[in-house]
Structures are given as structure tokens and as C-alpha cells.
Amino acid sequence: MEVMMLLVYDQPGVMQRVMGEFNRKRINVETIVVGKCEMPERARIVLSIEDREKALSVMEHLRALQEVIEADLVDHSRHEAYALLQNREGICRVTGSVEEVDLIVKKSQPEKYVQAMNAI
Question: What is the CA radius of gyration of the chain?
Fold first, then answer.
């Protein structure tokens, strides 16, 4: 799994243009995390993609977008994961390494869950 981090201008339509590049290249994005960041009028988009070659193939196109300030693949040592799990007892929040979160999700077999990767 590859994690890609983009620093973008925080404006309407940026996500649509970024995701349009993945759509044109027919690349499935596994997870997306978006939010404001430490810089005024900027946001970070963190995406996870299954295939490294596909991630590299879209990188040049992302960097060419006017709204994208930076676009890089994140070193595997900086990957983090989180999940929200739900079962009859309630909701549980889990964070940790990708492997740790995967293991907890598999062992707990929740009724519902959402799992994502992140990095900074």
C-alpha cells in the first residue's frame, strides 16, 4: 500500500480536480483523508493506493494541477492507520501501525467498520 500526501489550496473544487486525475488513469483510491492544516488557506489530502506504479504514474499529473502545491509519496515508516469498529457493545476507536490495526480488525470481527491510512 502506498500513501500519497498532497498540500493544496483550500478552495472549492480542488478535490474534484484531484480525484479527476485518478479517474482518468482508472486508479482506485483505497482511503482519503482531507483537512485544513497548519498553513492558512491550505489543506492536506492524504490518499492510500494499492499499487506503487499507479501511484507514481499519477504523481506528475497531480503536480501539474494549479491547485496542488506539493505531492509526494510518504515513506512506509511514517504510515499510520486508524479504524472505527462497531459491534453490539458500541463503537471502538483504534489507532496504530498499519499491521496493528489490521490485526485488531481481523481479530475483533466487528459488525461494521471503517479503516483508513494516514501519514504526516
Answer: 15
Q: Does pTM top 0.85 for this prediction?
A: no
Kindly state whether residues 68 and 82 are assigned to the same domain. no
Q: Tens of pLDDT along 67-107?
A: 999 999 988 888 888 899 998 888 989 999 888 998 999 99
Same domain, 57 and 82: no
* Domain interval for residue 57: 2-74
End-to-end alpha carbon distance in the chain: 16
Give the phi and the psi of residue 27 in degrees, each rounded to 5: -110, 125
- 1-5, 39-43, 105-109 — most confident range: 39-43
Residues 2/49, Cβ–Cβ less than 8 Å: yes
β-pairing, 68-74 with 42-49? unpaired
Q: Say if residue 44 is in the same domain as residue 6.
A: yes
Residues in the chain: 120
Dist CA 120 CA 53 (whole Å): 21
Question: Which three-class secondary structure state does DSSP give residue 109?
Answer: coil
